[in-house]
Every structure is written in C-alpha cells, then in structure tokens.
Amino acid sequence: MRIYLHHMRQMPLGGRTGYCARGARAFAEHYGLDWDDFCKHGIEAEVLLATGDYQAEQVVEFARQQEGGQ
Which domain, by its residues, includes 9? Predict the structure, then answer.
C-alpha cells in the first residue's frame, strides 16, 4: 500500500486535521526519505513502518482505514 501526502494532511490529530507540509518534510529529511518522490508518487507503507516512528505508524493506520483496511 502506498501512503500519499493527502493521507498525512487529512489525518485527525487531537482537534486539528493533519500534518503540515513543513512537518512532513522534516520527517522525511530526518529519515532520509526522498521528499520530492514522496510528493509525486507516495511511499510504500512498509518504508514508513521500517522507521519505527510512532507517527509513521499512525499515518499508515489512518491510510489503511481510509482505503478500506487493505
């Protein structure tokens, strides 16, 4: 399953909606992910999960729910 920027931007976060692009870009840079490629093509859920990051896990779970539990 691919995770796209719209998943990050739409995810509910305790009273507000989604991550800002700046925060998502900082996350990508921190983990050495190609930001431009992510914006254009998304990223495999397994790549995000491999970071071991709690926020990445939450985004993947949200995307799965949005896409019908794949």
Answer: 2-66
Q: What are phi and psi of 47, to 5 degrees?
A: -65, -45
Q: Which tokens sit at 15?
A: 């009273």
pLDDT, residue 58, reads 93
pLDDT along the chain (70 residues), means of 10: 92 84 90 95 97 94 85
DSSP code at position 43: E
Q: Which of 8, 11, 70, 61 is closest to 38 using CA atoms?
A: 8
Distances in Å between the Cα of 7 and the Cα atoms of 43, 50, 56 are 11, 18, 11
DSSP state letter for 18: S
- Would the pTM of this model clear 0.70, i.e. be above it? yes
